[in-house]
Amino acid sequence: MKIENINFLKKHLQNLAEYEPELKIKIEKISEILSQTKIEDFRNRKSKVHLSASAVVFKNDKCYFIKHPYLKTILLPAGHVENGEMPIDTAIREFVEETGFFAKIDENMQNIGLIDVNMIEIPENPVKSEGEHIHIDFRYKLVLDEEREGQKEAELEWFLLEKREVDSEFNKYYKYLE
């Protein structure tokens, strides 16, 4: 499945605001940015706005995190939404690539698991020939896919962390513990 238009993303965000009303102001600001950006620009690495998606996946009382190779900080497994993908597909793909474990949509969650959206300022990265830009990051609560056998090789160093061990930005996600 792929993103057909900006209206789909805005509707997805409006649904999130219904479930998480405290996000309404942030969602309005992000929706405005989406309205000002052409869908094809999200796939252009030279654009000032990129779409990304993150996976919030728990094992017992801990959440999976990775060490970002360029920013050198602990973050959720995440990455750019690629051509032909929906943000939920990106979150699932990036979780597998970065941790080596399989994840899937949590069927108990509303709005296919979208629990947050953030605007993240990304510094210039000469290695990727990317200028300073922002990511509109869709964050999905997923579950481990234990029906899938084995583990793939992880691209990044990953950690299972308790709420007390993570940056305050991520504390609110622990309310979604199974």
Automatic annotation (TrEMBL):
Residues 48-178 form the Nudix hydrolase domain. It holds the Pfam family NUDIX. InterPro entries: NUDIX_hydrolase-like_dom_sf, NUDIX_hydrolase_CS, NUDIX_hydrolase_dom. This is NUDIX hydrolase. GO terms for molecular function: hydrolase activity. Keywords: Hydrolase. The keyword Hydrolase applies. It comes from the Bacteria. It comes from Leptotrichia hofstadii. PROSITE patterns: NUDIX, NUDIX_BOX.
